[in-house]
């Protein structure tokens, strides 16, 4: 292999790698969420064990649950900026994105960007038995 052909193959390989990384970045930026669960079901026992004002992460459902006075509120656990999983900071009483620093209050509202949309609210649908399912729309009255 000559030096010229080696450099040609090296540059071609670098171009292919750079194109792949750019395509992945564009896909992530455009809203494709990887790793999101197709089911949002969990045991009712989790709700029974909630303590008021203390968010609990339910990883199998991809959500945060918070018990308020007379209801349980659920939020999607992914940041609305690029989809990283939120972390709860109990000392500051807020949700924080470990990837880019977005901060959300306990009601899911943006306190600091780069995220501009609040955390998506989810609604509980109780099924027969011991299961709870999270849905995107509130149940009909």
Tell me about this structure:
With 141 residues, the protein is of the alpha+beta class. It has two domains: 1-32; 41-135, 3-layer Sandwich (Rieske Iron-sulfur Protein), CATH 2.102.10. It has helices at residues 3-29, 44-48; strands at 41-43, 56-58, 63-67, 72-76, 87-89, 94-96, 103-104, 110-112, 121-126, 131-135. The chain starts with a helix and ends in a 6-residue tail after the last strand. The model has no long low-confidence stretch (mean pLDDT 87).
Largest sheet descriptor: 6 strands, antiparallel
CATH homologous superfamily classification of the largest domain: Rieske [2Fe-2S] iron-sulphur domain
Helix-strand topology string: HEHEEEEEEEEE
Poorly predicted tracts of residues: none
Percentage beta strand? 25-35%
Task: Specify Rg, calculated over alpha carbons.
Answer: 21 Å
SS content category: alpha+beta
User: Residue-averaged pLDDT, rounded?
Assistant: 87
What is the CATH topology classification name of the largest domain?
A: Rieske Iron-sulfur Protein
Helix content: 10-25%
CATH class of the largest domain: Mainly Beta
Number of strands: 10
Q: How many domains make up the 3D coordinates?
A: 2
* Count of helical regions: 2
The CATH architecture assignment of the largest domain turns out to be 3-layer Sandwich
Taking strands numbered 1, 2, ... along the chain, how are they ordered across the largest sheet?
A: 1-10-9-4-3-2
